[in-house]
Every structure is written in structure tokens, then in C-alpha cells.
Amino acid sequence: MLRNKRTVVRGFASTAEAVSKDSGERTASKSMKIQNEVMRRAVLEGEWKEGPPSFRTRKARLGYHSPIGLKEVFPEALKVVQRDSEAHYAMAEKLQQQLKEVKGRKTAEKIKKEINKHLVRAELHNPEVLYNYKIKKGDFNIPIFRYLAERDWKSYDMLLLMQRLETLHVIPDTMPTLDPRAAVSLQFPGVINKWVEPGKLLRNEVSAKRPILKIQEFEPIARESLYTVLIVDPDTPDLVNDSFKTTLHWAVSNIPLSNTDHLVDVSKADELVGYLPPHPEKNSPTHRYCVWVFRQETTDPDTTVRRIDVDNEDVERDYFDIRYFAEKYGLDPVGAHVWRCTFDRSTDSVRSKFGLGQGNVYSRVRRGTLREDPRGVL
To answer: Which of 298, 208, 226, 297 minimizes the C-alpha distance to 268?
Structure first.
């Protein structure tokens, strides 16, 4: 049984190398095999001395009793899974040979998608793969791990994001719409291991430092893929026009990312405008800080990404037009995030620390029609 399993892994590695140049046999075998031999035998063969090793306490392990007939049925079920896996790998290899003879770009892209589907189905029920994904040991160069991550993301996080973007009117106040294809996670230095939930109301001192951004693409992308990140505030009071204007708080372009390199590293990119900490003025409405992630693409059929050179006048903080910017530089929105801030006790210290001035204090005017007092006094 285990010999057949190793054959499947080798077959995967040889097929995956044609789809992703970075996934070799060693990487594929390591991420698709449980490294702990005790745990591996427990998962695949149900072998243990004192109960399942995944149980933390000895008392829990001793108290476990396998369902009647499980040890007899599981090996037969695993054989069915392996046969199905081998069939999908064989189909993927057949399509890979067809891909070498295809010249049209659209046809090639269609075949690549079919190959990806077969690679996912080949390992969708693999106990070792599911275990490694559960303990976060998966290699995102491999299609099955990206598929599992995307499935989990779409089941909750993506729905939550879109609900917040729409109810807070980030769409369409900043960009007209979004077809989310990448998971965007955000946290601020000092908030340890705390990813910010979209739409969360934060203190100004929490968001004073430049955020840490993680961008996870689920589609297979080249290692040299480039991205642009913009953070805008569409709720800045515009006293001249008695309205609101959009302020650019951060702009970074030519960010290199890949399926396994998720974090935004400013040192490897072009920081067009430095990070401006949120500093809402007193009595102004709650401000939305909208994070937009764009994929830099090109119409050139021989390349998938391109660097962009941005004109200085296009990244002025005041009256920033994010739609014009995205259209001018051919940016494709793939992900977003949002948090909110309002004037609080920490705002003045943030203003003082970063030299942002004293700020304005807006008066609150009661809305409604004033009725004339019968005595002639309003």
C-alpha cells in the first residue's frame, strides 16, 4: 500500500514540475508525506500502542476506541482513493503532452486549467495531504494546497470581506466593484499575531505604524509577478467644496509576490508615497481606510507582468483619484481590505509624534427645520 503511495507522489512531482518550475520531486514528496513516522502509521494504518498520537493526553489516548470495522474498511477505501489518484495523474500527464504541441495562447491556458483540476482531484482525498494542510505544512506551489486554502477562504473570510466592503460602501465609493481572487490579511506592528477583521474600528495609536500585509493568490502565478497596493481614505472633509475628498495614505508598486512568497516587502518594491497614519479630526465622521491590491498585467502575449513607472503628479495625497490611477496604469484589482478609525484619545499624540499639526475641530450642527417661536424668538 505504501509502495503504491510513493509511486503516486513521484508521479505528482514529475507532472507538477511542468506546471510550476519551483516544485521538484523533493518538495512535492516532503509536503505530501507526513514526516512523523509514528503519526504516518497512525493515519495510514491505524497503528498505535496507546491510542491515536494526535491526542495530547495519555488518558485521552487510552480512552479512545476505534469504530467497529474501521481498520478493516479503511485500507480498502485507501486503495480506491489511490486508483482514482493514479487515473487523474495519468490524465494530467496526457494533457501535459498535448500542451507541448499547442501554439494558441487561449487553448494553452484552457489545457493548463484542466491539468490543474486533475492534479487537485488526484490528491483531494489523500489522508497525508489533508493532515499536512491541517497542521499548516502544505507547499502552496502544489495545486491541492492552494485549492484547500481557497475553499476555506471562500467559505467564510471572502464572504465577510465582501459584506463589509458593500455595507461600508467601500464599493463603489473607491472602486466600482471587486472580483476577489486573493486573500488580503492585515495587521499592525505591536498587535502580536492579530490579523485585523475587515471593517474593524481601531484606535489611532494601533494603526499608527505601517501595516503588515499578506497577499495569498490561489491561481498559479509566476514568481516574478508584480503588484501594487494603495490605501485611501475617502472620508476626508473637503471644506472648500463642502464635501469629502479622497486622501492617499500609502502607495507601493512593483511588489514581487508568488504563490509561496505572500508578505509585502517594501525594500524589494517601489514606495511611491510613504505611510500616513490615520488622524481623523474631531467631530468628523468615522473614516474608512480602504486597502486595494492590484495585479500588474500587460497585453503583451510574451510576458505576464510588467513594471510600472508612476508620474509624481499621479500620487498626490489630496484629491487622489484611485479609479483614474488604476485605469491609467492597467491595474487589475484582485483583493481588498478595510479598517476604520475615528477621533479618540490617542489622536493628538499620533499627530504630535508624526508632525501632522493640531488639526481642526468641527462643530456639530443640529439638522432639521427651525420653527419660528410665536413670541418672535427662535
So the answer is: 226
